[in-house]
Design goal:
Helix content: 25-40%
Strand content: 15-25%
Number of helices: 8
Number of domains: 2
Shape: elongated
Distance between the termini: 16 Å
Order of helices and strands: EHEHHEEEEEEEHEHEHEEEEEEHEH
CATH class of the largest domain: Alpha Beta
Oligomer: single chain
């Protein structure tokens, strides 16, 4: 039976929308699955979200924790071996099988590996920031611009990409106020500042030092030079912390793009390392919960096809 055949086993790291989708699809094919998730040891994007409302079938806003709780109940319906541990290192032996070592010292081995650990967003170093996260501070225009389109918006970033984001906002619908502010003292290029000025976007060089608002909802931001900027919403362009360092620690070197995201074949989501897959925000593609779920399904279908092929089917 498949359950006793290690050559059909898959280890999935991360139990968010991407990893859980892989696990459910493979379990439905009756393939052995180990799903490893760090849980509260690592807070990913989904767990930190206060509202998710662009996932099909969701009639109402739902929090990230509630969304993950629903996924958890769905996972429980299938024969998936679920491990609540943090992965420290992943290596590959001479037979091509992956060896995963966790913070408990335990080791897990499988023929296929799916990395679905997501990202942690870099936040500006401002005291009192937490109450505003995901109420007034966001990272994704696709996720959060629409419901905030009538509010005063500031984009925080340390380069011209922040102005590009502001221009994108302006092109969809100009908000009552639109500004670009840095997290550290920054000089934006003259060309981009001119573009911003032409579109009535205020660009500041002095960094943010304080947020002012009530009950987690922003009203104004204060800059180091004393300037006060009206803003009800902040979109950050400060980058990410990657969570897949366990690959390098085990000597695995899949190809990455210039920003450190794993490069994949977008038909299968396999990386440059054979039988190593990357789904969700860890890869170079778009970052959305609904996209991550679809990527997980496609990766599982690809793994299933490989298993059938090795059986001569």
């Amino acid at each position: 039976m498949a359950k006793n055949n290690p050559s059909e086993k898959t280890i999935i790291i991360g139990a968010g929308p991407a990893g859980s989708s892989v696990a459910i699809y493979l379990a439905r094919y009756n393939h052995p699955v180990i799903l490893i998730d760090a849980g509260i040891k690592v807070h990913g994007r989904t767990s930190m979200a206060t509202t998710i409302e662009n996932f099909l079938g969701h009639r109402r806003k739902t929090s990230g924790t509630d969304f993950l709780a629903r996924i958890d109940k769905q996972l429980a319906r299938f024969p998936i071996s679920r491990i609540s541990e943090k992965v420290l290192k992943v290596s590959q032996n001479n037979q091509g099988q992956f060896l995963v070592i966790t913070d408990t010292g335990k080791k897990y081995q499988a023929q296929y590996l799916v990395v679905a650990v997501g990202l942690i967003d870099k936040m500006p170093e401002i005291s009192g920031l937490d109450p505003y996260y995901d109420h007034s501070i966001f990272h994704c225009l696709t996720c959060d611009w629409y419901q905030n389109r009538h509010k005063k918006i500031a984009v925080i970033g340390n380069g011209d990409s922040a102005i590009t984001t502001a221009l994108a906002i302006n092109s969809m619908q100009k908000p009552p106020k639109l500004a670009v502010v840095p997290a550290v003292p920054t000089k934006f290029s003259k060309k981009m500042v001119q573009k911003a000025k032409k579109n009535q976007i205020a660009v500041f060089s002095s960094p943010i030092t304080k947020l002012k608002g009530r009950n987690g909802y922003l009203q104004k931001i204060q800059l180091k030079d004393g300037t006060k900027v009206e803003a009800e919403v902040l979109f950050t362009e400060l980058g990410y912390v990657h969570l897949d360092g366990f690959l390098a620690r085990g000597g695995l070197k899949p190809k990455r793009d210039e920003d450190g995201f794993l490069k994949v074949n977008f038909e299968t989501f396999e990386t440059s390392v054979k039988n190593l897959y990357a789904t969700g925000p860890v890869n170079e593609g778009p970052d959305q919960a609904i996209v991550a779920g679809g990527e997980g399904a496609l990766a599982a279908i690809s793994i299933h096809a490989k298993i059938l092929k090795q059986k001569g089917i």
